Amino acid sequence: MITKDIIKEMKQQGHGAIANLVKSQHDVGTINFILEHLGQLPSNFDSSFLYELLTHQHHQVRLNAVKNIGKLNSKTDISKLSDRYKIETDTTVRREIISSIGRQRSTHNKPLLFDFLNDEDPKIVCQAIRGLLVFEKDKEVEDHLKPLINHPNEMVRTVIYKEYFAQDNKNVDGLPHHETHNFLKNVVVNADVLQALKYVPDESVHLTFTSPPYYNARDYSIYPSYQAYLEFLEEVFKETHRITKEGRFLIVNTSPIIIARVSRAHASKRYGIPFDLHPYLVKNGWEFIDDIVWLKPEASVKNRIGGFMQHRKPLGYKPNAVTEYLMVYRKSTEKLLDWNMRSYDHQTVENSKVANGYETTNVWKIDPCFDKVHTAVFPVELCKKVIQYYSYKGYLVFDPFGGSGTVGRTAKALNRLFFLTEKEQNIFNICKPKLNRKVCSMNDKLNF
């Protein structure tokens, strides 16, 4: 039986020991095991057998051969890799060939990498870009890469934009990334959200978690049309994008909704709110990150399956809706998450770490919550998870549809700050004493 230790020992022996070992094998799995555990190759390594494997009938063997050829550095035969690329049919092997050529960091390979930029596979183009970016301040390289800002593939455009066209977004107020304005801390505003946000400076909010009003499902959420409803939410989340710190998160809780039929002669209408809202968010600078499914007990939802249970006729099936979506977005940025994390001191990071018992999948089983006045209330457990997973202590958490203030109360309990807006006076009156914090209305000019 061939083991890692045997491979290591034979590699040190040299004199083609590994080559002979591979050639004596007829099992593809064993050949791949050897190739995958070769590790770093010594300068006197006999690599001729690797090039012979480029014609092996099994694509995984060819892939592992290319990976090892890429470790040979200056001894890599680029012409043989290039010739294989021209006839290779497996996309994974083709991409690895480009990667191996790029890793050589040789100026002699630039013309070849330039040619790869014309490949129809965007991942190959990205690999070629990666190989060329090592030549910093090289005008020839820049002249070939900058025009790719108009490439049809979005990943290619993103890489080129970050490397050559992105500008550092500095807050005009000079506010540190981890800080926010004092007048927004622990405030709930009784006003239309779009009116209130006019007074909020750019880059003020760290996290937004909200559940928009459902289209024409409540007395406080009546809109002339579904399109008008989506356009209203678009404006709200455009403004939310403006006031959100670079690279920070928006989590929108919503679900499809049914509008009851006018009469038995007409059909009810089902609206896919999360799916219809998504394109508006992405168009306006929110990058989609995750979809989380909030799963409720079946006994807690409206029964839609009753009729089908009686007749069992196909086409009449209507399942009970036991889920809602938490759509997770991040304000688009070229900076990685590490940059956001580094804006906090060590103690804040340590104190904000999530305890054991956190969710490991995107399906969260949480019981819903009910209220006599507000008919769509966040469960505290749902708020708690979102705030803990997507914010640090001291963060400002925003809810543009504040409702009874669950997001604010949960943020406060978790040592975060809150900023809420709520248009409906009766709901605001319930929210105010629960939060026991500074409140204002449009009549107060928001106290800003």
Helix count from the secondary structure assignment: 20
Low-confidence stretches: 439-448
Gross morphology: elongated
- Number of beta strands: 11
Sheet of most strands:
9 strands, mixed
Q: What is the number of independent domains?
A: 2
CATH superfamily of the largest domain: Vaccinia Virus protein VP39
Give the second-level CATH assignment, the architecture of the largest domain: 3-Layer(aba) Sandwich
Residue share in β-strands:
5-15%
Mean pLDDT reading: 89
CATH structural fold name of the largest domain? Rossmann fold
Distance between the termini: 75 Å
Helix content: 40-55%
Structural classification: alpha/beta
Radius of gyration based on Cα positions: 29 Å
The CATH class of the largest domain: Alpha Beta
Numbering strands along the chain, what is their spatial order in the largest sheet?
Answer: 8-6-7-3-2-9-10-1-11
Task: Give a structural overview.
This protein is of the alpha/beta class and 448 residues long. It has two domains: 162 residues, Leucine-rich Repeat Variant, CATH 1.25.10.10; 247 residues, Rossmann fold. The chain is built from 20 helices and eleven strands.
